[in-house]
Amino acid sequence: MITGATVLACKYKDGVMILCDTLGSYGSMARFTDLRRCVEVNNRTAVAASGEYSDFQYIQKLLTELTIADYEEDDGRTLTPAEIYAYLSRVMYNRRSKMDPLWNQVVTGGVGDDGKAFLGTVDLYGSAYEDDWVTTGFGSYLAVPLLRNRWRAGMD
User: Residue 130 forms beta bridges with which residues?
Assistant: First the structure.
């Protein structure tokens, strides 16, 4: 089981910034040092996750299938970050209800149709919330006090 990661994300004046570490731990051993935990879903949405890496790969597969289905509709529209976030919250809740959760905390960010930044997170239970900044993993203990003191609306 490859686990770990910290995801930090915050809104700024023109969009959303998402940062992830790249370490994958196998137990207490720092086994993989170049795991990509942030993926582009479409031209205006990115998803990042901490937790079990194989579960994140499964989420990536679901998002690829969703993006292909959206493209096949050929309606000139792409899914918004809020729609992808809602989809992921339902997926996570469904898996939790089946007593087979995906052991991840997923962060979804991007810019919507209205040009406003969107940022939300979903945990392994399907609990979801939107905020101006979110953190996951061990980095939360370090980042939350800094973000509380330094983040402000409309940052450059």
Answer: 120
* CA separation for the pair 48, 9 (Å, rounded): 9
Q: Which residue has the tokens 């006090």?
A: 145
Which pLDDT score, from 0 to 100, does residue 34 have?
86
- In DSSP terms, which residues pair with 105 in a beta bridge? 50
Going by C-alpha positions, the residue among 88, 142, 92, 94 that lies closest to residue 110 is 88
Q: How far apart are CA 87 and CA 97, in angstroms?
A: 15
Instruction: Quickly list H helices, the chain.
Output: 53-72, 81-97, 139-150
| Chain centre to alpha carbon of residue 10 | 12
pLDDT(30) > 80 = yes
